[in-house]
């Protein structure tokens, strides 16, 4: 039998010491525990909260532990390190859990994992924290668990106040956002389905036919999901397709499409009279896209493996709309994938910006004269966003277009009039950090 705490600690070791992605490692561990041991929903939710919360607050937790331990956190054995982090998170941020239970369960786990000689160490550290569960006096980097160089960058770009709002927003929990596939289900049928499943829905900001859902244990067990009536998709991602604004019956290419949310949105907007070609680099990624397509029955959507860096001469000047939502540092998604903040480096950002330009150098060629290219990322760095926006304008025959005709007035700004939108968590309600820009190819 595996407990929620043991499962969470195992996932934390996989993420912080073995390089796993938290959302994937956690999902696989929960599925296995449910199948093998019948783990209940309450324990699944507790394990999820422990993984997410510990990763989000890691640097602050380390500061608290290091203030009491002669052995620095970084030099501890991986299992003990993650056990202390996870337990410290409970003591500092989950006051509804008795401190005695946190300490006792941690000692039991240390024993179960054969760390008999360290159970006293674990108990001593946690008992001391339980007697003084105040937060340590630290700088913004540790307080918000962000690398110091990244905090400074954001402050230079957005100012201190907006940066603090954004970093705080990464801690906030948002309900699951879904979008109605308007081409296959009407709103009344969808509402009736949600009522039968006991779900509650609240409209999301900025996007029509989209809601936050609550009241489900697993979204894939709901009628609306199984029948392909809804698509799980972040609001920011929805806005990229809204900005693309494909007309009915047009041809669309989505270059780096996995997991497929934007491809599905574009296919829904253009309808069965159009065509969508969704591509990505690996079989694993294209499988995710196919699963979404088959669930909704979008037969006008084709899925292929392809390397977006390599020019496909058969597609030159063929597409009405090209969606280039390209590989990026993903800093805007920290609310879902908190470990990203500890892995990114300035060098990686430069390398990703260069990769994006390598793909963009091919992407614009697929756009028909008079057609549209949308360049987007899920990050918050000028190298990957604004600098690439100007690179496209200066190095291709594409002209930036104002986004204001496609966006609600609440999102209009000086930059949207120029052709791009930088979404920031906390500043733009319900959104990840996301960049969206739109270009039109000159007619010959």
From TrEMBL:
One of its GO terms (molecular function) is rRNA methyltransferase activity. Residues 166-442 form the SAM-dependent MTase RsmB/NOP-type domain. It comes from the Bacteria. Pfam families: Methyltr_RsmB-F, NusB, RsmF-B_ferredox. The keyword S-adenosyl-L-methionine applies. GO terms for cellular component: cytoplasm. Keywords: Cytoplasm, Methyltransferase, RNA-binding, rRNA processing, S-adenosyl-L-methionine, Transferase. Specifically methylates the cytosine at position 967 (m5C967) of 16S rRNA. This is 16S rRNA (cytosine(967)-C(5))-methyltransferase.
């Amino acid at each position: 039998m595996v407990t929620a705490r043991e499962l969470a600690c195992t996932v934390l070791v996989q993420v912080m010491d073995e390089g796993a992605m938290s959302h994937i490692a956690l999902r696989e561990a929960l599925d296995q525990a449910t199948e093998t041991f019948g783990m209940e929903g309450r324990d699944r939710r507790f394990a999820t909260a422990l993984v997410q919360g510990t990763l989000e607050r890691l640097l602050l937790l380390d500061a608290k532990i290091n203030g009491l331990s002669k052995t620095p956190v970084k030099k501890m054995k991986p299992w003990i390190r993650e056990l202390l982090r996870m337990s410290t998170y409970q003591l500092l941020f989950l006051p509804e859990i008795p401190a005695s239970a946190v300490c006792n369960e941690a000692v039991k786990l240390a024993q179960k994992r054969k760390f008999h000689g360290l159970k006293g160490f674990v108990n001593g550290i946690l008992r001391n924290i339980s007697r003084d569960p105040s937060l340590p006096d630290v700088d913004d980097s540790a307080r918000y668990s962000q690398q110091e160089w990244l905090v400074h960058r954001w402050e230079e770009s957005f100012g201190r106040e907006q940066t603090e709002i954004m970093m705080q927003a990464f801690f906030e929990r948002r309900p699951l956002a879904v979008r109605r596939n308007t081409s296959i289900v009407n709103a009344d049928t969808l509402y009736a389905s949600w009522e039968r499943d006991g779900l509650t829905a609240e409209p999301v900001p900025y996007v029509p036919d989209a809601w936050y859902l609550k009241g489900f244990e697993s979204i894939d067990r709901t009628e609306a999901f199984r029948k392909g009536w809804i698509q799980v998709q972040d609001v920011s991602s929805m806005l990229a397709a809204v900005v693309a604004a494909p007309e009915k019956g047009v041809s669309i290419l989505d270059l780096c499409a996995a997991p497929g949310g934007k491809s599905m949105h574009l296919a829904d907007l253009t309808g069965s009279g159009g065509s969508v070609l969704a591509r990505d680099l690996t079989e694993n990624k294209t499988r995710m896209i196919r699963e979404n397509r088959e669930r909704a029955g979008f037969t006008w959507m084709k899925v292929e493996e392809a390397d977006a860096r390599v020019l496909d001469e058969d597609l030159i000047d063929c597409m009405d709309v090209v969606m280039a939502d390209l590989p990026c540092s993903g800093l805007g998604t920290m609310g879902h994938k908190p470990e990203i903040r500890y892995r990114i480096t300035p060098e990686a950002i430069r390398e990703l910006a260069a990769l994006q330009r390598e793909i963009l150098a091919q992407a614009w060629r697929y756009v028909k004269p008079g057609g549209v290219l949308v360049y987007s990322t899920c990050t918050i760095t000028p190298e990957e966003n604004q600098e690439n926006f100007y690179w496209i304008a200066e190095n291709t025959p594409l002209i930036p277009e104002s986004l204001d005709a496609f966006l609600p007035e609440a999102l209009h700004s000086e930059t949207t009039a120029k052709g791009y939108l930088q979404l920031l968590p906390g500043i733009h309600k319900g959104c990840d950090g996301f960049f969206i820009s739109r270009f039109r190819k000159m007619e010959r």
